Amino acid sequence: xxxxxxxxxxxxxxxxxxxxxxxxxxxxxxxxxxxxxxxxxxxxxxxxxxxxxxxxxxxxxxxxxxxxxxxxxxxxxx
Length: 78
What we know:
With 78 residues, the chain is mainly alpha-helical. The chain has helices spanning 4-55, 64-77. The protein is rod-shaped, with a radius of gyration of 25 Å.
């Protein structure tokens, strides 16, 4: 026979597991949203750079090394 302490402990452990599962699902949703947003931003960025390069090939942002330097600095500061 199981006593009340053991039943209470089992209930609390089950609730904790449910809470962690919901937390994990929330993180997965946030990750999926961030991945989609990042993919969309990359496509948009590529389109903008292609248009800028077409219109103003001498623009400093048309140079891939300049863009990489800006990206690296922003990444380090994030």
